[in-house]
Amino acid sequence: MSLRLGASMHVLRLPGLDLDLRKELRLTRTAPAIESGLRGAVAMAVPIAVGLAAGAPALGSVAALGCWFTLLADIGGTYSQKARSMWAGNLAVSTAILMGGLAARIPVVTWLVTFAWVLAGGLGSLFGPTAAQISLLASVMFLISSGVIGPVNSWFQAGLCLAGGAWATLLSLGVWSIHPNRPVREAVSRLYITLSTLLQDGAAAVEPAVDETPWRSQSLGEFTQQLETARQVWAAVRTKRNGLSESERQLLIAQENAQQSVRSVVAYIETLGVIARDLPDLRATLLQLTTAFATTAGELAASILKRQRPAAPVTMEAALANLNDVFNERRTATVMERDEYRTLASFAKFMRHASLLAGQFRRLAEVLGRPERIRLDTATMFPGASVPLTRRTNAGQILRANLTLRSVPFRHALRVAFLTVATQAAGSLLGWQRSYWIPITVLIIMKADYGGTISRAIQRTIGTTLGGLIAAILAVGVQSVALQGVLIAILAFVAFTVRPLNYAIFTIALTPLFMVMANLLDEGDWRVSLLRIGYTVLGGMICLAGGYILLPDWERTRLPAQVAKTIRANLTYFQKVMGLYISRSGASAEIDQVHRAAEVEDANASAAAQRLLAEPRHQRGDAESWITLVVYLRGLTNSTTTLAEHAREISDGSALPGLSELTAAIAGALEDLAQTIENKQKCSTLFQLDKEFARLRAEVERLHLARLQERSADADTVTPTVSAVRENTFLSIELDQIITKVNVLRDATERVAGSG
Predict the structure, then answer these.
(1) What does 398-429 look like in DSSP terms, one character per residue?
(2) Which of 195, 407, 447, 518 could form a disulfide with 452 if both were Cys (CB 3.0 to 4.6 A apart)?
(3) Are 369 and 310 spatial neighbours (Cβ–Cβ below 8 Å)?
(4) How many C-beta atoms surround the C-beta of residue 131 within 10 A?
(5) Nearest to 623 by CA among 568, 566, 563, 672
(6) What is the share, in percent, of the chain residues with pLDDT greater than 90?
(7) CA distance 116 to 131
(8) 3-state SS class at 225
(9) Is the pLDDT score of 12 beyond 60?
């Protein structure tokens, strides 16, 4: 396979693939997990120390291995959920040691049992991330046991592993009791970190980059998932107490305030794009305010996590006051043209969104900074209950429904099981030393999507190579068994600390950790590290080839159904919001539910598009058009959310003439797009959205003329015309943007339908 480096050394080019190494080494927006690192260091150090004191370091290493795998079973949630995951992981891993050792008597039996074990473990993803993680850990330990332990010591080793895992769980329970609300704080804090990221991305609407869309959809998708996680964590904690402490009440307020704040952020950024285009002389001022909002959200996140009084949002207040002065200066003009008045009306709308967002941040800062109880304003008070988007299905029904080659999880489980057994058998037949590392590499690297396999292969190879070199140096320089025990604790601390940051960096610490533990087991010297590097590279290459050849699942075959589903979710959301304007009714809980459904489908479509881009170019189809569809569907959701926020401006009068007809036309166009993508055909009807919009725009212009005439006589009196202008000016602007987005969606849909 040919390999070359592009003009930029961080871009690795393989046939049909463009791999950005910076992406694989990029750190997540997460602080190092210092507490997890300390917990891991103590958990690993104790069994190692006991083994050294007893003169049996190998036994201490096995117990430490149980600690390691049990700690890895902790993937988040409430403390009770984490504890259950760790107990289940400990039991599964200990059972894997026993079964792997017993199955190692006869090679053929070993391969058959391995296939069944890995296949069953691969189906764990059907039952959630916790089950998937425990299944993976159990499969890895099964391979280690069948390759190292053997049938003689399997019962004893399983007992040691069980004891080590129990120690790690008990230690965790003790640590968690110090900060009982830590999971809730982390979940709520992440909401405001994401809000800060959204605002930073929104600054691109003021100073757009050449190679970026105005603002990215990934953060919004993350927020939707994080809000659901925060609600679940809070609900699990809340059910255990009859009352709430003031600290817990602050967290509840912050969590529910975040839901309103994200809508305000979306509306703010949508109007920001309009104002930045109409008033280019204010770009610097607008950027200053947006940056101040992002900074304030970040400070609120830090305050929630660290239980500290937040600093006064001085920068935000100053930036808002500065822009408000500019607005007041411009609105005092007594003579202006119709277009100038339209721009002024949009400016006023932007200032209302900015003031609302500032008020939400300001109020939360007060709640977090005062010991006494503070009630939320009605604008930021939302019910704590969250309606599930789907019903929980019986586990047996899920399993039976996926026992078919049409099931992506089942195909992936078959692919992983086959490659794992094939590499296990090949290593055994060829007599390679420690060849069990190859199937372990396959098990860890293989993902359901090919792009995920590529990414994990790169990260694992880089991490193992660098970590293996470090391990070789340590093997030569550190011969003392006691110092090796200290090294295990240090490396465990580093590994768990950097684990949330990046998988490649985690693997850099992981590799020398296991190499030092192997030395305690008398498994070799520094050359073993080089052998592990070679096995990892070989395993990665096998994964890339196997993922491409064996039952491949290309994203372009699934993307049409997902995009059609996303279009219909947005269609429902749009219809519900426009119903507020047509029927002149207030917002309801149903709006929240359809909004969440649209956000979830947007996130699913965005994730699918990212997987598409990670696949070989010749398997992507018309990737550019698919990306256009996903980006503009997110834009459609943002515009609809902005209209939902704007609904507070609905006046007492009747709906704008032509609004009902335009709404029906847009809804019909979206349904036509969904059917076109599903059926891979041309659009069945011609869009007449611009023609329908012309009538509505004429009505808005008539309102502007009427208001200009009123201003010339009396600029201060609030009349029904003022209310109508407030409602319908921005309504028409946003509907115009929605029509533009729908037209772009139509063009992209026709391209993908024609290329299908």
Answers:
(1) HHHHT-STT-HHHHHHHHHHHHHHHHHHHHHH
(2) 447
(3) yes
(4) 18
(5) 563
(6) 40
(7) 17
(8) helix
(9) no
H or E element, residue 19: strand 17-20
- Residues 149-168: tens digit of each pLDDT: 666 678 999 999 999 999 99
Query: Ranked by mean pLDDT, which of 367-381, 470-484, 512-526 comes out on top?
Result: 470-484
| Residue whose entry in the numeric block shows the structure tokens 């961080």 | 10
Strand partners, 4: 13
Distance from C-alpha of 684 to C-alpha of 669, rounded to nearest angstrom: 10
**SS3 (DSSP) at 718:** coil
The CB-side HSE value for 588 (13 A sphere, CA atoms) comes to 11
Q: Are 489 and 48 in contact (CB under 8 A)?
A: yes
pLDDT in tens, 621-673: 888 889 889 989 998 999 999 898 888 777 667 778 888 889 999 999 999 99
Single-letter residue type at 537: V
Domains of the chain: 31-178 (no CATH), 182-380 (1.20.58), 417-551 (no CATH), 555-755 (1.20.58)
CB 452 within 8 A of CB 475: no
H helices, E strands: number in the chain:
26, 3
Report the alpha-carbon distance of residue 140 to residue 69 in Å, rounded: 10
Distance (Å, rounded) from C-alpha 467 to C-alpha 513?
Answer: 9
What's residue 235's pLDDT? 65
Q: Which tokens in the block code for residue 523?
A: 């498994």
